Amino acid sequence: MPGFSGGGVGGGVGGPASAPPRAFRPSRYVPVSAATTFLVGSTTLFFCFTCPWLSEYFSSVIPIYIAVIFLLTLANFCMATFMDPGVFPRAEEDEDKEDDFRAPLYKTVEIKGIQVRMKWCSTCRFYRPPRCSHCSVCDNCVEDFDHHCPWVNNCIGRRNYRYFFLFLISLTTHIINIFGFGLVYVLHHRQQLDTPHAAVTMAVMCVAGLFFVPVAGLTGFHMVLVARGRTTNEQVTGKFRGGVNPFTNGCMRNISHVLCSSQAPRYMGRLQSPQSVEVQPPFVRPPLTEAQLEAKVLDNGIQNDRHSTRSKISLDQMESQSADAEPPPPPKPELRYPGLPRADTEESSLLTEAPLTPSMFKYRPPYNSPGRNHSAITHPNKMIRGESLDSPSTSILQSSRQPSYRSEPSSLDGATVVGGGVGVRRGGGERGEGPGGPGGTAGGMSGGMSGHSLTGRSYTSYPSSLVLSTGGSHSSSLRSAHTAHNPLATLQSEGTTDTSYKSLANQTPRNGSLSYDSLLTPSESPEFESAAHELSPQKPRALFSSKTIMSQPEVMSPSSPLQGYTSPFLSAQIAQQREGQLLQGSATFSSPHRAYLRAVSPPPPSSSGPPESQHLLHHNHDPSSRAPRNPSSSSSSPGARSLEPPVSPPPRGLSLGKSYSYTGEAGPQYKPQPTRGGTVLGGGGVGGGQQAPQSISRPVLANHTTAKPGGGVKKVTGVGGTTYEISV
Amino acid sequence: MAETHSLQDLQQPTVSSKVYVQRDYSSGTLSKFQTKFPSELESRLDKQQFEETIQTLNNLYAEAEKLGGKSYLEGCLACLTAYTIFLCMETHYEKVLKKIGRYIKDQNEKIYAPRGLLLTDPIERGLRVVEITIFEDRSIGSGR
């Protein structure tokens, strides 16, 4: 919405290579102060009251030994506290230009044959490298994020994990020393227990004994983690449960990596060497053929798409097509910018590049094509992304207006692109929620084409030229749509469910079973109805603009979900689904298609029925593609914040041939934060994909568990007291 | 950044675009960059030169992260001195990073600047991307 326009820009321009200043919160320092006080205080008392006798009675080696261990503990404690854990500087504005809101929420990379998902960090403006996570306490992305430790008031990441680990070991040893020698003292002074020395020694022993249990437990836990090559984050979110850890190199190598590797460099606060190299034209050029120039246009469209040549050529392409015929190919990145408030960079780039052609302006304001609707909506989307952490509720509504624009890819697989504009942004990778479909009209179109496409859920993350050429207009809504969800996801629990369903009108099976969602939406909850209302005006527009949509008119109207479709199977399932939804979003379907129904479980989207039912039918044939990634029960209460892990299709599609896939996203921090709702959906739903047709959503790190787990949902308690549910 | 097109301004060529060479995670989280030649550079640079540059960078990073006796001794020494050694001594990784900085500067001077390109040290981007800045070539006429 208009009000957010500033926010989006602000968010994007944000902090160039540093973290923004945060408010001083004294409560953050309480645990670390307490830890320091106990450590230093107890040890000092011990040295003053117990050690003199020890050195007399036994030898002076003992106090020296205790002092050495204590110094080691203190040194490691200071390093763990004050050392930069491996914070990534915010990405430069130029870097994320092309990844703005058109790009998918997730990118998949293959690590040793295992698919790993990299999530877009809206705060830091880059795709988080594997094992990187964003700490909400520190508001930074940390490399090899382990957890945020309140006792040292610092994140534990790549750079300081070693010190943290050594701190734990040395602290355990120190506690054992204190307790042991204190015990020796007390046993020798049984008759003089009323002396202050004995009293102090006993007090110190009590403190030591009290801290011994949790510290030793944590030490043992981390020893196991180091041996297995996992981070706390990965362990707690169950990423590698039953799967393969791509980051392990064997026990010995893992241990030596932690203890013996060279100190990793810091990224923040580096002195940037001034650019001393002069770049002056004329420039040397290698010989270039015409064919190469032609080919250049369609290549590598996702990234670095800012060349003026490209924009020019794309303009030509667009000019050559009539707007009323079929949807034009997606406008090139520069053209998509016009609608956004990033005027300075765009305008400057436009000015310095080729002279503006009239066709460029054709795409600026909304015109009679999917792209236009799209651009009109992209603003709110973009803004939503920028405001991701601010107002989930409003953004939910906003995102819900992106109805058809946020369609899912699945429908696009086969027929796809035809309609043009079905911005299948598959090239970019997976989508945050549901099958990241192209945005814009694609929604409507995909609805119509769902019948053909459903097999598709082979959402692969490979960029295909076809996709790129057609993805276009709607792709812009992709990231924004997803990010709209996504920020919510990070706030709550990553997952598509509510919001994504709301926003996705009919679309292709977002998480597998679209039909139910759409059918249920209008009558289910008021939120959906409002969303549906919001959607309805959008949808018809999108529909009409796209000629290729087949059953659009019916499909799109949320008010008549069952138009054109009266399959008894569907109605039975719908009934089941409704029932299930009433049970707080947990999937209680007993239908054979429970797998994907469950994925849909939380409030059904306000999409229309018929296309979904078509999807459903097609899905019946292809249950495996629909692995529900969202643990139905967990975090989804109707209209609640929870966003189930987005889509499974992309990884699944790829994972069919792979052994394992997992999402690189984990909770922002190990310590659960109630304010953040479900936080991370942890491994998202990827895990199960390739395993079985009824793929299992990865456990969700939810701060609260839904009251009633749905069928086949298992509650698991992780370390640290967090519980999450896994749909089995 | 908008610049007027005056002859005097030609001394500072404008940035046409930036190409980002992403990390190659196929063998884990080791620092390695993709050697795939970006299409935007096709008209500016030879593929072999680019690949050679990236490959050398990868080798240097591998050397920095090598788990060898040297890094182990360094760790032990640091532990024994309660990490005060870090105040005076430079770690192995930092030494290699300096080497990488020199290499990039050298490459820029010899190969990339004459072609209107500029490599940015990936450490400035958190070792996530190698940023190659493409400068607009006004001498030929229309920008490409």
From TrEMBL, chain B:
The keyword Membrane applies. Belongs to the ERF4 family. Residues 19-131 form the Golgin subfamily A member 7/ERF4 domain. One of its GO terms (cellular component) is Golgi membrane. The keyword Cell membrane does not apply. It comes from Labrus bergylta. Its main location: Golgi. One of its GO terms (biological process) is protein targeting to membrane. May be involved in protein transport from Golgi to cell surface. The ZDHHC9-GOLGA7 complex is a palmitoyltransferase specific for HRAS and NRAS. It comes from the Eukaryota. Keywords: Golgi apparatus, Lipoprotein, Membrane, Palmitate. It is a lipid-anchor. It is found in: Golgi apparatus membrane. This is Golgin subfamily A member 7.
